[in-house]
Amino acid sequence: MTDKEIESDRAKFISLHKDTRFSVERKYDYICKDDKYVQNGGMDNQYFIQDIWGARKVYENKPEVHYDVGSSVAGFIAHLQGFKQQVCLIDIRPMRNLDTPFLRSGGGGGKYTQANATNLTNIADESLESLSALCSIEHFGLGRYGDPIEPDAWEKALKSFQRVLKSGGKLYISVPVGKIDKVCFNAHRVYRPQTIIDTLNECQIIEMSYIDGFDTALCMEYRDDKLQIYQDKLDSIPDAVNWGTTGLFEFVKK
């Protein structure tokens, strides 16, 4: 909006305003210029769909405690708290604890550990039934979030995830995917889907899809004791110079 539009709206509002309970003095102004002509629902569709996808998976599995590494607290973790899932969060950045009476009510809430999640040294082997890392491991070792420079940190992290999962435990991952593996320094990496699958060699891929607008395109699914691969969907994964669409991966520990 222009200043002229705002002043026009103000004059019209004041001329129509009859409710004496509300003061309309300029000292209370909080001018918003960027909302009038934008489309409703102006959010990042990648995070929007990814967080719903992950929350649905956890809800269907209903673990006693779900562990998460670096996912969106305002998105994915908020969804989990919506259905009162207890969570344990691990991230290299500081954050307030989620252990409050409101969040704990009904079995929800959780604990927070500030740590470098690359090696998960504080978690025992084969001890977790449910673990997620949504749009986080692609950043590991690039220094963007104050973590140490470590080119293979993403791979170490996946091996650590695999180590701490119980047999039959579920792992939910999202990363940018594209035609080739590449580092887009210092923001993130982009992966071929097979690179993620090959690294998690003790896990079975259950589902792999990618986000397409406000939908997902299914590329692989484990069904009837066999991995079904939809090659046309794999081939249709879009490619970009320094970005990738969000790939969604569900694994189970063998």
TrEMBL record:
SUPFAM superfamilies: S-adenosyl-L-methionine-dependent methyltransferases (SSF53335)
Alphabetical list of Gene3D superfamilies matching this protein: Vaccinia Virus protein VP39 (3.40.50.150)
Superkingdom of source: Bacteria
Pfam families the UniProt entry points to: DUF268
Protein name listed in UniProt: DUF268 domain-containing protein
